[in-house]
Amino acid sequence: ELRIGAPISKAVFERLQELADLEAAHRAALRALARRAHARFDLRRRLLQKQHPPAAVDGALDRLAAAGLLDDGRFAADYAAAKAYRGRGPARLIRDLLALGIDRRVAEQAVQTSLADEGIDPTRAVRALAEKRARQLAALPAPVRKRRLTAFLVRRGFAGAEVRKVVDSLAF
Questions:
Q1: Rounded distance between C-alpha atoms, residue 13 and residue 9, angstroms
Q2: Do 92 and 108 meet the contact criterion of CB atoms below 8 Å apart?
Q3: Measuring CA to CA, which residue among 122, 124, 90, 125 is closest to residue 109?
Q4: Per-residue pLDDT tens digits for 101-152
Q5: Which partner for 172 in 66, 94, 142, 167 could form a disulfide, CB atoms 3.0-4.6 Å apart?
């Protein structure tokens, strides 16, 4: 019923505005995903910060998920694999994923499978990281070095018993 020069009813105008908002949110989400991968929660937060209406944001995210462009499971696995190579332990990876809005079950499964797929053994990783950090702390007295090394490894997300075992095995 749209014609050039004809007046638009309020209902039609509101519907056109909703569709325009949906399209704008969709394009903004695509631009964000083109730069890097995002979790659904994180992307929703970013779009809302940019003043997109919540209904339009949810519709845009649903469209992206239906197209296979937004998948929290895939994002979590990729994130865990990338960050594990940089020396983060399983607990830290799970905590980071939870902060990004990933469900706990999805985060735990992603960390477990990505570590296995990438061939990263947390026990060997904590030992290599501890040896490297111990060399950096070599000038400090032994008790200080041991305390700082333990705190560093725990912050990196390795388990307490595992950290204690590795730190005790290093010669101080």
A1: 6
A2: no
A3: 90
A4: 999 999 999 999 998 888 888 888 889 999 999 999 999 999 999 999 999 9
A5: 142
| Sequence-separated (6 or more) residues with CB below 8 Å from residue 5 | none
Neighbours of 23 (CB within 10 A): 14
**Four-residue CA torsion sign, 81, 85, 86, 90:** positive
DSSP letters, 100-129, are TT--HHHHHHHHHHHHHHHT--HHHHHHHH
Q: Copy the structure tokens of residue 21.
A: 């908002």
80 token code pair: 């865990």
Q: CA 27: distance to chain centroid?
A: 22
